[in-house]
Amino acid sequence: MPIYKDEDFLDSPQNLFAVVQDLLLSTMKYIFFIALSVVAAGAHICSPNACKYFECLPVENCVDGEIGKGFCGCCDICIKHLKEGDPCFLGDMFGSLVTSKCGLNLVCSRRSRTCIKPLNCTQLKSETEGKNLLGAFIPRCETDGTFSAVQCHGSVCYCAHTDGTRIPGFQSAIHNIQGMNCNCARHKFAYGKTGLIGKLFHCESNGNYNKIQCTGSACYCVDEVGKLVGESVHVSQRKSMTC
């Protein structure tokens, strides 16, 4: 805000008008700055008692999306999963409510602002990493750009194919994934895509190989990649096997 030390300067009506104009302009800038700060802070920070002012309604239909949290994290909302080619937003503005996001293995393109399928895992990771979006899926990648066998989203980890496709039926809580490799799940998934039948895979719920595998009347021990270890025995002796 301007300060005028020369009192004679204010004797002229023209100079006095200029002073008033400067004061008004400075005051308006100050008020605008304060207002903008309040809006920005209010968008990101909710008071501890904010939720008591909301009346939450149950989410009855969220088939094409996932359950997420609304404004201030008070109420459940349905976050719609967008399809490839749908318009999307790269991130929220001042903590605005997010009601949609690109579906699994899709990212919001910085260029087209639409949901696209990345060329590989590395591209998907670079598109999502560093945005600091709550709940964003950040994939685990191999050095060749393919998806790692174990992928985690939220508190759940699951088995995935090299192209990122989720293999249904095989998952584990994120705190219990030590030793999880998904080798059996991947081999079973790949064999199923060939259209062949006859080969059985005995997998654990986390996608690992069960140490005992049986084919026909023969049972045998396998290592973590499903390779035969030792001699096979008749299926009638399965219960006595120690692998």
TrEMBL record:
Name the domain of life this protein comes from. Answer: Eukaryota
- Entries under SUPFAM superfamilies matching the protein: Thyroglobulin type-1 domain (SSF57610)
Please state the span of the N-terminal signal peptide per the UniProt entry. Answer: none
InterPro entries in UniProt: Dev_reg/Prot_inhib, Thyroglobulin_1, Thyroglobulin_1_sf
Where it mainly occurs, coarsely classed, is secreted
Q: Would you tell me the Gene Ontology cellular component terms?
A: basement membrane; extracellular space
Subcellular location(s) per record: Secreted
In this chain the Thyroglobulin type-1 domain maps to: 118-184, 203-243
An example GO biological process term is: cell-matrix adhesion
Keywords on this record?
Disulfide bond, Repeat, Secreted
Q: What is this protein called?
A: Thyroglobulin isoform X2
Please give the organism: Octopus sinensis (East Asian common octopus)
Provide the organism lineage as a comma list: Eukaryota, Metazoa, Spiralia, Lophotrochozoa, Mollusca
The gene name reads: LOC115220711
